[in-house]
Amino acid sequence: MARLDVTETFHSIMFPGHMHTKDSLNYATKFKFQDTDTVIVTYPKSGTTWMQEIITLVLGKGDPTIAQTQPNWVRAPWLEQYYCADVLKGSTGPRIITTHLPCQLLAPALQHSKAKVIYIARNLKDVSVSYYHFHKMANFLPDPGTFSDFLNDFLKGAVHYGSWFDHVNGWTSHAKDIHNFLYITYEEMCQDLHGSVQKVSHFLQCPLTEDELILAQKHCSFNSMKENTMVNYTLIPQEIMDHGKGKFMRTGKVGDWKNTFTEEQSRLVDDMYSSQMTDSSLLFKWECPEKTARPLMTINTSESHT
Ligand code: PPS
Q1: What is the pTM of this model?
Q2: What is the pLDDT of residue 303?
Q3: Which atom of ligand 1 is nearest to the CA of 252?
Q4: Which of 124, 201, 268, 297 is most buried, taking the most CB atoms under 10 A from its CB?
Q5: Which stretches are annotated as coiled coil (predicted)?
Q6: Residues 230-240 pLDDT 10s
Q7: Domain at 80, CATH number
């Protein structure tokens, strides 16, 4: 499939036509989840690939063999992308499924399922900067123009996969309706990777020994993943992702937005955040946290309820 210039619009949300079709999107919304499935849910640039790696390593008890030999899109395919059905047909054992779909499109399919859902959120200033840079290298996304142009579109939700506000609000407010739900943030993962891997292993009911935990943590560090061709997207041809224009594993930091945002842009986002997250109890970290084992954000619903 090429369709690099095609935008697929589905329920008023834009998706890159390169990987999405009406059929693939319909397939996702009607998907029959199995109770043994683990589903990674994110708005783009929020830590998707990182969680794919963490889960692979947790299930492998820290052994990096699968992480180093199978591309992430094979071991944890995106449900809404056209190749997913074929990948899942060939899968044996518990499935890891990834999705960027907003809650309103996927919640009905998950409603009666006991699949384990992990939602990862990241503060929207860092997401916007990461997404901007990704637009510059990914030839299946539109030219973002200047950061200021992009930020305007991003805040309006006029970007692929829709609005960050709708995504985060939608999934977190539906957390209580999902049988097995774990909420975690990119910032928490940065601050306490060891604790985050442990949290995921508990949620997946796959306890690790301390040695296994340390091994898993080592292989999902930014530096390790940056060199891993199975997750750094260097296997993707240049005409689709141009690594001369940027790296997928770019900075991996909290608070990098400060290098791009003007004070005015920062105030604009703060104002929008206050007005659009009024019903939310989420507390995002906007700056690089001290490395401690303390969790960084709270949510009204219990983080994991089984
Ligand atoms: S995508 O395209 O939606 O799948 O992107 P996603 O994987 O969600 O997000 C990419 C950003 O996550 C960073 N990343 C990491 N940060 C810290 N540690 C680890 N191990 C890690 N793995 C991925 C990646 O660098 C992107 O963030 P930015 O800010 O652009 O560096």
Answers
A1: 0.94
A2: 40
A3: 16
A4: 124
A5: none
A6: 999 999 999 99
A7: 3.40.50.300
